[in-house]
């Protein structure tokens, strides 16, 4: 079963620092994909309510998760092409334009966090941290890794996804994958234009960085 926790705007505002640990424990007790999403005000709910949707993924053992970050208002066609076919997409912040979220959500279910440049009214509805549960694998998402305020291993996270630096990075520390897909938006200096991909199979997680454009050649 796949289920989505839908927050009210008020609820997100009060919990934007992190998803409550009770949510992690709930996810750990379920063999499910957990999508923690921002509630955009289409309904009026009090507190937290869970909406359950059967997506026929209960027998699935392999998932592909597309990872994108730091679009800064620019969603390149090359990025969309690289994300096509993913079972889920993560946007690790500095979105720049809410239309980007809508476009990504049309490709696959989306988990997103806001970044430091996402300061407009629409961005306040996007959480600062988020959690994706895929089978037995838990993934924590935030924009700036320096703002991580929990112990991923103690909280049973297999991976921490972040952005902010515009520099792709894959690092395994203490059994936890720290993955930054780099920036898919406007090029900064000579840094690459990239997205990422997670392959989750049998409770294991692997990552790769996908370069979208040819690198800049210095004269």
Account of the protein in words:
This protein is of the alpha/beta class. The chain has a single domain (2-211), classed as 4-Layer Sandwich (Purple Acid Phosphatase, chain A, domain 2). 14% of the residues lie in helices and 33% in strands. It has 4 helices and 13 strands. It has an 8-stranded mixed beta sheet with strand order 3-1-2-7-8-9-11-10. Strands 6-5-4-12-13 form a 5-stranded mixed beta sheet. The chain starts with a strand and ends in an 8-residue tail after the last strand. Residues 1-58 have low confidence and may be disordered.
How is this fold's topology laid out?
Layout: E1 2-7, H1 9-15, H2 21-28, E2 33-37, E3 48-53, E4 62-68, H3 77-83, E5 88-91, H4 98-105, E6 110-112, E7 129-134, E8 137-142, E9 159-161, E10 169-173, E11 176-180, E12 194-201, E13 204-211
Parallel strand pairs: 1-2, 4-5, 5-6, 8-9, 9-11
Antiparallel strand pairs: 1-3, 2-7, 4-12, 7-8, 10-11, 12-13
Global Rg? 16 Å
How large is the count of helical segments?
Answer: 4
The CATH homology group name: Metallo-dependent phosphatases
The CATH architecture classification is: 4-Layer Sandwich
Strand content: 25-35%
């Amino acid at each position: 079963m796949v289920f989505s926790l839908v927050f009210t705007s008020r609820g997100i505002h009060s919990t934007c620092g992190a998803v409550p640990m009770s949510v992690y424990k709930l996810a750990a007790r379920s063999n499910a994909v957990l999508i923690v999403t921002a509630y955009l005000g289409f309904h009026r709910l009090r507190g937290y309510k869970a909406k359950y949707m059967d997506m026929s993924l209960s027998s699935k053992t392999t998932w592909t998760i597309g990872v994108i970050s730091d679009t800064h208002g620019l969603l390149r066609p090359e990025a969309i092409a690289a994300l096509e076919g993913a079972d889920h997409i993560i946007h690790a912040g500095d979105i720049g334009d809410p239309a980007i979220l809508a476009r990504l959500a049309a490709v696959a279910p989306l988990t997103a966090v806001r970044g430091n440049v996402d300061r407009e009214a629409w961005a306040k509805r996007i959480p600062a941290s988020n959690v994706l549960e895929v089978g037995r694998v838990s993934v924590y998402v935030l924009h700036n890794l320096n703002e991580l305020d929990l112990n991923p291993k103690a909280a049973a996270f297999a991976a921490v996804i972040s952005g902010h630096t515009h520099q792709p990075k894959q690092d395994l520390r203490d059994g936890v994958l720290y993955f930054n897909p780099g920036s898919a938006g406007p090029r900064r200096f000579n840094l690459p234009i990239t997205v990422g991909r997670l392959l989750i199979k049998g409770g294991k997680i692997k990552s790769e960085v996908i370069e979208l454009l040819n690198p800049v050649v210095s004269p």
